[in-house]
Write a structure and sequence with these properties.
By secondary structure, this protein is an alpha/beta fold. The chain is built from 14 helices and seven strands. Helix 3 packs across helix 5 and helix 10 packs across helix 11.
């Protein structure tokens, strides 16, 4: 009697969302891939390092590190945002924890103190309030929130407060930092990989250091054999490659695959070999079929030539090679459902940076 074939052991797969993406809701790509891989019997987990980075920097301890960077700047070079931050540091240090908790929905009672305009330090971003109403208006936000919209009013003021702090990070730590994009100019419509390569070779700054620590913590927690970096926008490419750089330096045996919306639009005809100093595979379009082929390859059950919609660096020629074995995509009804397990849904921030009701859909609440 012929013995039944032994089922393949599942591989530990970690899907990461790199900085920066939205802070109010997890970008859905990893949730869909993680749900699909679990349905295939794989040991799949996920983590949002974009949210983790902001929550690590916007703490009392994080602000102490930012203050040290700001004080290291020559005074003449400090922006208005940095001056305001240093002048009001004790108030920022005391209010950052409660304000983050309020924006996470964990302390709604703080809205009274925030809306009263005496709790938060008000930096340059609050000057925008002066454009509302007329010069004699006692309440410049009355037109937007009236007498009853206290929670929304407080969230708008708290968002201005965080935007002031983001400006400090930009002016004192890394001029490329923004809340929803990080170093976007290095990857958006660039004709060469040289700007990214130069940035990745530079001495890490405070943001890079925090991201490295978060990456190492995620690797230690999950101990994956394959890491998937989902890059939806140009403003997430630099951090994704910094994450990959850290993994390669500390866990060289771990395989790394890059995919996502940015890859699907900007890297369809990729020839740059230096990308593969950081990642092992770059996959295009819907990720389910390329991932199944990649997992079989990593188990030794499929040759590299039978990978699907995947770029690799050919060992013999040292050139980029596109592999696309003819194989049907996974049918929609077999893709399964996303899972949010592993994403801390109670830690996302509901921000209100634009008062237009249509615009606020982008940053307010978990739309997905």
């Amino acid at each position: 009697m012929t013995a039944a074939p032994t089922p393949a052991a599942p591989l530990k797969v970690l899907s990461l969302i790199p900085p920066m993406t939205q802070l109010n809701t997890p970008y859905p790509s990893t949730a869909y891939l993680t749900g699909f891989l679990r349905a295939q019997g794989e040991d799949a987990v996920q983590s949002d390092l974009a949210l983790a980075l902001v929550l690590a920097l916007f703490t009392p301890q994080g602000l102490v590190r930012v203050r040290a960077q700001a004080l290291a700047q020559p005074e003449a070079q400090r922006s208005a945002s940095v001056h305001s931050f240093l002048d009001n540091f004790e108030q920022y240090h005391a209010t950052i924890g409660p304000t983050i908790a309020f924006l996470q929905g964990r302390d709604s009672t703080l809205s009274h103190r925030i809306a009263g305009r005496g709790f938060l330090p008000e930096g340059p971003r609050f000057a925008a309030l002066d454009v509302y109403g007329d010069a004699e208006a006692a309440d410049p936000l009355a037109w937007a929130f009236g007498a009853l919209g206290q929670q929304d009013r407080a969230r708008h003021l708290a968002t201005l407060y965080l935007n002031d702090l983001a400006d400090v990070l930009r002016d004192a730590v890394d001029k490329r930092f923004e809340f929803v994009r990080y170093a976007e100019s290095l990857a958006g419509s660039q004709a060469s990989f040289a700007p990214l390569a130069s940035a990745l070779a530079a001495t890490p700054n405070l943001i890079d250091d925090v991201l490295r620590d978060l990456t190492l913590a995620a690797m230690a927690q999950h101990q994956p054999q394959l890491v998937l970096l989902s890059v939806p926008f140009p403003g997430a490419v630099y951090a994704a490659l910094r994450i990959a750089q850290t993994i390669k330096a500390h866990f060289p045996q771990v395989h790394i695959a890059l995919g996502g919306g940015y890859v699907n639009t900007e890297l369809r005809e990729m020839t740059e070999t230096r990308v593969f100093d950081y990642v092992d595979f770059v996959t295009l379009d819907a990720g389910e079929r390329p991932l199944l082929a990649l997992l079989e390859h990593l188990r030794g059950k499929r040759s590299a030539s039978r990978l699907v919609r995947t770029f690799v660096r050919d060992a013999a020629s040292a050139q980029v090679k596109y592999l696309n074995w003819a194989e049907p995509d996974v049918a929609f009804e077999d893709v399964g459902t996303p899972t949010w397990d592993g994403l801390a849904l109670d830690r996302y921030l509901s921000l209100l940076d634009m008062l237009n009701p249509m615009h606020r859909l982008w940053s307010d609440g978990r739309w997905n």
